[in-house]
Amino acid sequence: MQNALRYKNGKRSWGAGVRRHKYFYLMVLPMVLFYLIFAYVPMYGVVLAFKEFNYSLGILHSPWNQFQNFHEVFGSPDFKTAFNNTLLISFGRLLIEFPMPILLAILLNEMRSSGLKRIYQTVFTFPHFISWVVLSGIITSLLSDQGVLNQLLEAFGMGKNTILFNNGSFLGLLFASNIWKEAGWSAIIYLAAIAGINPELYEAASIDGANRFQQIKAITWPVLRNTAAILLILAVGGVMNGGFDQIFNLYNPAVYQRSDIIDTFVYRSAFTDATGFGFSTTVGLLKSVINFALLFGANFIVKHGLKEEGLY
Amino acid sequence: MKRISISNIVISLVLGLLAVVAVFPFYQTLVLSFSTILDKKSAGVLIFPKSFDISAYRYIFLQGKVTNGLLISIVVTVLGTMVNMAVTTAGAYALSKKTMPGRNVIFTLVIFTMFFSGGLIPYYLTIQGLHLQNNLLVMILPTAVNAFYLILMKNFFSTISPALEESAKIDGANDLSILVRIVVPVSLPIMATITLFYAVDRWNEWWLPMLFINNTSLQPLQLVLRDAITNLSQTMNSTTGSQLAAGVQNVYADSVKSAMIVVSAVPILLVYPFVQKYFNAGIMIGSVKG
C-alpha cells in the first residue's frame, strides 16, 4: 500500500527516495565523517598558505600576510632544488619504472608452466607488502661497509661501493629498489586484463602462422594499452609526489643534493629546520595544485590526442 | 603444443633469475640474523649460513623495546583492521546503491581526496587539534578508509545480483542486516583481500606514529625498527676508523638489526600465502570499471 502511494504518477519523490534509503545513509555516515574530518578539514587548512601562522591563534585567527609565504618559497634555493629533483625523479620513474610491470605481465603470461608461474608471481608480489622502513633496512645492510656487496667486491679484488652516498648511483638505487618492491604488484592489474582475452585468439593466430612476438604485438598489447593509458594518467597526476616513503627512509645528507624531493623538503622545513608552518603549507599547496593540473592535462592528452579511453 | 621450445626455456630462465635477485636480499637478511661476529670475520663472503646462532633474537626479545613494539603493533593491527573493514564495508555497500539520492555527490567527494589534499601541515594541525598525540587511536582513526580499497569493494558489491537482496527484503530484513547476513558472506574473496591489504597497511604504519607518538612505550614495531636503523647508521658514521676496520661493533649490530627485520616481516610472510589465492580474483572482479 505504501509503495503504491510513493509511486503515484509513476514518479517517486526525492523525500521518499531518501526515506527508502535511510539505512544506507546510516551505513555511509562513518565514512562521510572520516572524509570530512581527515580530508576536508585539512583542505580548509590550506588558507595557512596565505597567513603568518601563530600557534596560539590557530589556523582561523592567524593574520593574513599578503603572499609573503609565496615570495619566500619562490626565493628559496632549497625549494628550487627539491622541485627540480622531484621532476627528475618522477620522470625517471615514468621512463624506467612504468614499463616494467607491463613487460613482467607479458613474460608471465607467456609462461607455459602454471605452477612455476604461480611461484614467480608470489615472489615478485611479496616485497609490495613490506614497508619501506624494513626494505631500506635490508638495502642499507646489503650495501653497507661490511655488507654482502662489499664482501663480494672484495673477493673479486675490487674497491668498495659507495652507492648510498653517491648522487648519481643513489638515483639508480631508487629506481631499482622501487621496481623490486612494486613491479610484481603492478603487474597484477595487467595480468587481470590479459586474463580477459579469449584464448581462441592466440590459437587462431598461431594457426595463421603468427609467431610469439607477433601474437604479443597483435593480441596482448592492444588489450594492455588501455590499462596502461589509465595508469599513466594516474602516474602523471602524481609527478609532484616522487615517493616520500622510499626516499625518506633511504636518503642521507650526502645525497640531499639529488634526492631531496618536495615532500621530504616540506617535512624537514616544518619539523627539523622550523622554517614556519605557513611556508611549508605553501609548498604543499603548490604541489597539490600542480599535481591536479597535470592529472587533467594527461587525461586530456590521452583522450583527445591518443584517442584512448580516459579516466573520466 | 610443440612449441615448448627454446623461447619457453629462455622466458622461464629470465624470470627465474629475476626471482632469485628479488629473494636474495630477504634471504641474506635471514642468514645475517642467525650469524655471529666470528662467522662474518672468518667467512669473508656470507652467502651460506655458517652457524645457527639465536643470540640476536634473544637480545631483542630480552630488551623490552621490541617486545613492547610488537605488542603495540598487534593491538593496532587488530583494532585498526576491524575499524577499517566496518567503515569501508558499510560505506562501499551504500555507495554501490546507484538509486540512493546524494550518492554521486558523496562519491565525487571521496574521489577528489585521491587527487587533492591539504598537505602535511594542515593535516598535522588537524590531528593535533583532535588531541590524538600519544594516543593509539592516531594509528587507527586517520587511516579508517582507503579510497582505493573502498572503490574495489564498491565495484564488487555492484556485481551482486539484486535478486539476492530482494528476496531477503520480502522476508522483512532491513538493509543493515542484509549487508551483514547476505552481502558479506557472498563477498568473501573481496573481503579477504581487502582485510589483508588493510592489515598489512596497519602493520607497516610508521609515518603517523613518527609524527604523533613520542612516548616510547606506545611506539609500534616499525618505529622501533626505524629508530634502530637510524641510530645504527649514526653510530656507524661516528665510529672511529680503527673500530670500523675491526668491524666488531658493526657486524653484531647488523645481526640484531636483521633479527628485528625478520621479526617484523614474519607475520606478513605467514598470512600472505593463504590470502594470495583470493587477491588475484578479488582485484580482477573489483577492478571492473563501474
TrEMBL record, chain B:
Keyword set, alphabetical order: Cell membrane, Membrane, Transmembrane, Transmembrane helix, Transport
Residue ranges crossing the lipid bilayer per the database entry: 7-27, 70-93, 105-125, 137-157, 178-200, 258-275
Major subcellular site: membrane
Alphabetical list of SUPFAM superfamilies matching this protein: MetI-like (SSF161098)
Tree of life domain: Bacteria
Limits of the ABC transmembrane type-1 domain: 70-272
Location in the cell: Cell membrane
GO terms (BP aspect): transmembrane transport
Presence of the UniProt keyword Cell membrane in the record: yes
Membrane topology qualifier: Multi-pass membrane protein
Residue ranges of coiled coil: none
Gene Ontology terms: cellular component: plasma membrane
PROSITE patterns the record matches: ABC_TM1
InterPro entries with a match to the protein in the record: MetI-like, MetI-like_sf
Protein name per UniProt: Carbohydrate ABC transporter permease
Species of the source: Paenibacillus roseus
